[in-house]
Structure prediction request, 582 residues.
Amino acid sequence: MFKLARFLKKYRLQVIFGPIFKLTEAIFELIVPLVMADIIDKGISSSDEGFIYRAGALIVVLGVCGLAFALICQYMASVASQGFGTELRRELFSHIDSLSHSELDEFGTASLITRLTSDVNQLQVAVAMLIRLVVRAPFLVLGATVMAFTIDFKLSLIFVAAIPLIAVTLWFVTAKTIPFYKNIQKKLDKTARITQENLIGARAVRAFAKQEHEEERFRENADDINRIAVRAGKISALLNPVTSIILNLAVVAIIWLGGYSVDAGELSQGQIIALVNYMNQILLALIVVSNLVVIFTKSAASAARINEVLEALPSVKENTNAEPHMAENAPMIEFDGVYFSYHNNGENALENIDFTANKGETIGIIGGTGSGKSTLINLIPRFYDVSGGAIKVKGVDVRDYPLKRLRSMIGVVPQKAALFSGTVRDNMKWGKSDITDSEIENALKTAQAYDFIKELPDGLDSMILQEGKNLSGGQKQRLTIARALCRKPEILILDDSASALDYATDLKLRTAIKENCGDMTVIIISQRANTVKAADKIIVLNDGAAVGIGTHKELLASCGEYCEICLSQFSAEEIEKELQDE
Prediction:
């Protein structure tokens, strides 16, 4: 947790003065038993009503002042804890945004959401308790013990004996419960993941009538959390009874031994009452400490999880000061003996990929499921770094570009259409923030999306729900293509982004891109041979290796894997005719 203390820098005053105000309140609280002792010994014993009223008024003043200081501390604790949470969330979100795809894959979406919300909330509670109670509670324990020593040394030894026993109890509970709370947070990650999967895939769940199965999966995870929480709770539940037993036995000892001292005339009745009050103050303070132990135990687990994210470094290192010198006659894209392995686990997803793509060329990439098509194009904008070889854009290794400069040259349309809540215009501005409506309309026309947008009641101002839930699959794909075209990239990557389009619309789309984006290097990934057959160059991938590179007709004549794909989609007569037309 100390590693996260830097997020409290803006709130130094609250962190310093909040506990001071709380300590002042505690001092007032420690004075009250002494005043009560005087009321008993001086006021009641001598029937001095004036003294009783004056002492009573003093107790009221101490109470009012203590309340005022406590409220000021509470306000400061709220400001500091909420500010801490805001700063931490902002930093955590920014850091997550800087991580490479490898790290995001490793943590998982559900886990990152839990850390950004639940874990940060737990730390906010810890900060508030830190300012309000962490200093006050131990101070009351020590202060009450010191005050007891000013009354009677022998009876005060009871305080000294009780406190170590309580400390051992606190240590035992802390050591035993921390692992449980860490496990609970992991289970909460799983809860978030199951919930996310069910909300996103609600249609699939219902289509397969799997509601009961998913409910059972959620119930099992919830039962696991319940079981772990109960085990942690059973251990934590020992805290209050054990501390209460120890302190109440101490109170009994004070009254018993104190009775002899009163009979002997060594102590007054008021002093015994004061000692009992101080022991009760210690009891209440330690109850607070026991609750703090639980809070900080949970917070320690949350802090460890957040630090795990903040300490993760992106595997893709950016050279922000690089000034790439691009060659005019170099290919737009060049793969030079590229190898790639996810998490460097020794299993290559791509092996020895070599090809070039010139300005204005269309490159088709085709292959079976899991052949490495998406992996290959993810290396161009450096979503991942190559494990071996090099990828060059305009003659410059992509690792020598600042990421913003490199990605400004590339328009990527992902395999899964990703739209954001807001208007159509807002989504198009992701491609170019200062884009005009005319430019948006041109991009929509090229993407074959203009007609259905025009028919919407509000046109470009029509609202898109989260993830485009109010659009069909084909409409979402066309809008994501239009968004990529809005930035007028030099390289356009279409990752199977026309899979939901009918053949006629797919053909119109490819024709429009060819006509309107002639200088653009286009990379098309598709399962459809018909989509890539007109490309200037087709790359056939099989199990991460390029088993064929050439035009449609060249590959029909030379690449068995490409022929198999075509035979699964065209008749043998059509293929034979294409070979004869050559």
Observations:
- The mean pLDDT is 84.
